[in-house]
Protein 1
Amino acid sequence: MRFSQLIIPTLREAPADAEVVSHVLLIRGGFIRRLTSGSYNWLALGVRVLRNVERIVREELQRAGAQEILMPVVQPAELWRESGRWDVMGPELLRLTDRHDREYCVSPTQEEVVTDLFRRVITSYRQLPSNLYHIQTKFRDEVRPRFGLMRAREFIMKDGYSFHLDEDSFEQTYAAMHRCYSAILDRMGLDYRAVEADSGSIGDGESHEFHVLADSGEDVIAYSPASSYAANVERAEAVAMPRQTDSQDLEKRHTPAAKTIESVASFLGVDARQCVKTLIVHAESEPGLVALVLRGDHQLNEAKASRVEGVRRPLAFASEAEIEAALGVGIGSIGPVGLELPIIADGSAHALSSFVCGANTDDYHYLGANWTRDVAADVRVEDIRNVVEGDPAADGSGPLKFMRGIEVGHIFKLGTKYTEAMEVTVQDASGNDVVPLMGCYGFGVSRMVAAIVEQCHDDDGIVWPDAVAPFDVHIVAVNNVKSTDVQTTAEALHRDLEAAGIAVLLDDRDERAGVKFTDADLIGIPTRVTVGERGLKDGVVEIRRRNQPHTEKLTPALLVERLTGNPANASQ
Ligand code: ATP
Ligand code: MG
């Protein structure tokens, strides 16, 4: 195709709102343009990359035995009421009403619709297992759309759903999808990691995320260099530490104005690791409150805490006024000693002895506190914190290290969450009604385009992996408007390469060579061919790989032979 006939609006400057390199380069390279917050138009180059990602996803899914279908974007509210998610989803779900006042939402995901479809078309165990997917637009009214395609409001997802009669069948498909996602990322040549993950509001079971490794990633992955263990920090299990044994006397100290762990620790001259902090959250049953106790240097993991029995889900912190009313003490001085609330202590906080904690009197703290001797309340020990670097790994190896990743895929075990709520049954071989198990497999097709750029770029622009590049070869015709030789050779190369099935972008614009080279580097097509008068005098053109510094001179005939692998295709 000819550059002059495509709209490729390259820019020299980065857009003001772009914070990450993929956003900058995809805009500067003319791949996408913003419509409104979190939604983008795809221009010719962008669509070609998107279609390549989709093609690879389709091919691998087909290989894994999944069938492609297509489901609607606008979904009736009744189905979401049936599953119980109409209220759970909150403002991320874009809701609308039609002319008859019927309620709908714009698809953020498709469990309800696919389960409804399934119950209408599947009746017998003979039709199982069944693995369905589609590639479709999604809308999620994200709190903070950002990073261009990475966290958009409107985006393109491959979402797939499988249905099974039994656990064995589910496990087989789950493993096949795990292999399928790995194969997709392998074909794109990316550095990625499959990690244990939290399944959020979508399901309650096992799940794995696939992360493309990049410093700009929003997720932190805890991994063990000594083993294959890797988990999203949202999920990574904190291993309980052995109990300390030293024992000091309990001592109450005045700690004026020391409200945070840092200020208490420095005022008392102790390490934050020897202090505990106490957070008050709402209990499952109104109007109860629950105390969560963590070691001073640790952070609460809200997803873990909200799964603990007795804690309200989603997690809700008590307000200052609620705490004052219930406990008669301000937020900075709460502690487990003498507290009249149920306590959930993180394993590491519970392993301390002789610790520092709030004394439940404003501006006072205890030193030398001890769980068994001093805490009367009902204490349950749970894992409610984020792991930190240096912790042991849950598989017994470690110490854990952290790296950043971009979540491009997520596979879940849904169990019977939707099939039960939506009353789906299938008859098994002996005529009994069985509620089928479900799996769910999401892949961020448009986010993938950004993730590739995050990993594949240099100072000059994008360096597309061959598998997804918008074109295979970029012919830069230097001074083509004035030189008939250049024009003829470039056109012949364009024709012969395309005839051999190679996707070619011919820069036939009336632009200076410098502009063309800068654009070629920015756009990042893997192979660049330069056709110029100087080279043609010696009968050669130049070839350069985008990811390599050196160029090579070849006759046009040899060039075609090299790129097509076939001497018969050679230009004259
Ligand atoms: P995240 O934690 O990033 O919000 P999620 O857990 O909400 O992701 P899923 O519901 O599992 O994501 O969706 C499946 C895939 O869709 C994700 O792995 C991701 O690649 C993609 N995706 C999710 N939200 C967005 C978004 N706002 N913009 C672009 N892609 C997205
Ligand atoms: Mg999300």
Protein 2
Amino acid sequence: MTSPDIELADTSTAVPGAEWWRTAVIYQIYPRSFSDSSGDGIGDLPGITSRLDDLRSLGVDALWLSPFQRSPQKDAGYDVSDYCDVDPLFGTLADFDELLDQAHRRGIRLIVDLVPNHSSDQHRWFQEALAAGPGSRERARYLFRDGRGLDGDVPPNNWESIFGGPAWTRVVEADGSLGQWYLHLFDSSQPDFDWSNEEVREEFRRILRFWLDRGVDGFRVDVAHGLIKAEGLPDYSPDPEGGSMGGDEEGVPYWGQPGVHEVYRDWHAVLAEYDGDRALCAEAWRPTPEETALWVRPDEMHQAFNFPYLETEWDAAALRDVITESLRAFGSVGAPSTWVLSNHDVVRHASRLALTAENPQGHGIGPKSVGKPIADVGLRRARAATTVMLGLPGSAYLYQGEELGLPEVIDLDDDTRQDPTWFRTGGERYGRDGCRVPLPWSSDAPAYGFSATGESWLPQPAEWATLAREVQAEDEASTLSLYRALLAARRARHLGEGTLEWLDGFDAQVLAFRNGNVTVVANTGSTPVALPDGIVIAASGPLGRATIPADTAVWLADD
Ligand code: GLC
């Protein structure tokens, strides 16, 4: 590894309003699919450390690591059995410390995933709860209830798991009889904690401090809208066409209950005990920016993912509305807006933006789906959409592989799929494996350089040879080169700190705004539009002589 030359700036004296997370570009690493140093086909922490120079040259400010803590991997690590250790699949705590240190030496911050809504059923607490029986202190850490009906064989309410099937599983008591039920909003291996229990709250303060003491810069908080359930656990039937995480629905008894905010006020105070602007980012799927902004009021979290933005179609008017509303809503509580187009739970935006049929979040696409995307339209739109996103003020999230223009992998064989969604819906929903396929690093190495042995926990498509990072690094027209150029210009021109001013007078299919001395113009339509005056500093695709072609965006500077 080359010797790093940038030290992380000391932010302990940072001016309020200038904290790093207000403007940072944060790159999501999905550890099992990033880089595998051990050769077992599953990425690991030393694999990430070995690629930090690539991430520095990409130009990101921070990394978010999806879970690497101890876990039986029933939901790819979002089922945690020990919150304060590294799963041997990914390495050791010493490997984590080395990764953190090497990232900091390169001026890159690191946030880790925290999964507070549920643990794994293999967590010590849950095993103790099973053994201890009804009415015990051990059961009170989770949501155990007696069943309905004469024999208690009807679940306590009608809730459905986000991954399909019932949200309750009945346990066999120590004496062999069928007993109570426990709630799991996700897989049956992911029992929900009871957040009205002070013991749970205290345990999570301890977990936060464990990672803060090691020096992490913050946490991405999983299912941050779900911790508190409505009093009495009333029945509720979701809209079958709605997204899995409830982004579009109001009045759901397990999403966005008012009491959830108290938890984050408490955590805010824990983070404030530490120096260096540690941050919390909420994964809270809410229908509007306004509701999402409730998670980032001044004494709560610092950022929240802007899922309303992610869910907006490639359409100038719709984008203008959601951007305006985001800046207004987050700004009204003194928080930065965030922007995101892809993550490990959604169809990659290089495919999603060209889907021609409804595709609710979490359902995924596969061989039998209708409305499959046309690949080159998807990539063109994705590059243009990213060119718009990185021109916006605030903080932006990137998902590993989008800088290579990776599409969703649609034709995975049924027997390779691993998402619990696929199993719990009997194959009716493909789920999220298609956005989780391991990255291609070089075109002619085994597993395209993901692992030295050629192992890969999901198979990589043959076409990915041409998308490998090494190939794209040499090609000025590649998606990787576009991301590098955008990130460098964003940094040099301080676009993260800027303010947005809409520009009018363009065709209806055009989105146009200014941020500082940069003009961003995107053509979301199907015919070319006039290219305004200015010096082109970045373009998502080839431009006409004086035109911006369909599905193309451009950055223009005055000087
Ligand atoms: C979040 C994660 C997702 C996981 C779920 C349950 O939505 O992003 O991957 O399956 O929570 O933890």
